[in-house]
Amino acid sequence: MPRRNPRGRAGAPTLFLLLLLLLVAAVPSEAADTVTVDVGAAYASNEGTSIDPALGTIRGKLRSMFNYTSYRMLDRKRRSLSVGETGEFELPDRRSMRATLLPSRGDKVRLSIQITEGPRNLLTTTLGLRRGGMVLVGGPPHQAGVLILIISAE
Amino acid sequence: MTMDCRTAQGKILAKADVLLPRQEEAELADHLAGCPACAADDAVTCATGPVLRSLTGIRAMEKAPALDAMWTRVRAGIEESRESRRRFSWLARWAWIPAAVALAASALLFYPSGTDQTPYRPSSFDVAVENVESDVATVALVDKGEDLPTVIWIIEDAKT
Fold first, then answer.
1. What is the least distance, in Å, from the CA of B106 to any CA of chain A?
2. What domain range is A56 assigned to?
3. Which residue of A35, A53, B25, B108 lies most exposed, with the fewest beta carbons within 10 A?
């Protein structure tokens, strides 16, 4: 009568447990005092009529707000910031954005934003938004259209 | 020594059962040759064995189909039990794979990375712009209500 390999029988549950541990370790455990700042750079133009699916539920809103026919995601980055911490985001065309998390209350997030192009200061602003909220910064020229920065905080 | 009829009766039964030694069988034959009554008993006893064997054979042949059917059922039952045990063992051996694949997919899906490409699903467009400044451009603030995102528009050299 064939006998099962006991090592094989023990291996499957062990692997299952390892994967479970991996999942537990992988799920982000954000502390209450940190905020994940998400900055996406989209290229808006009148070249074509495609709208990048990565833009998700804001595709319709972009169409209704602007006169461009095409929207394409160029880049998207996330940084987890603590209060007082500054995150730097590289943008197309040698531009960059610095976001500093400011103290706030409740589910509000306050961000100090500075967008520069080389030595030039394009924008300095302070935003107050809810966790999961979003704001757009647009206008810097890019190729035949403009850049639209999608800034959100979670 | 001459065998009496009572002794001969016992030996006739032993002979019918093929238990009588050769020497005694010869003695019995001498007695049967001179005793017609014992010889008749011996003939009847010898004829009974084959008749009984024939009857037993006939009954066995009658019951053979029923026995065959019963054995077929028993064999089928044993085979079915083996098969179900094999199936269960196969399931027990491989059932963890789909669960492991689901876990791995979840881990990949939720693993935090620097370039998250999940489509945007903002929960709010409620934004307070506390201040806006620019050294080199004109900045416009566009707020079209809670259903649409607030837009800070940078106008450089009246290009856009």
1. 7
2. 34-153
3. A53
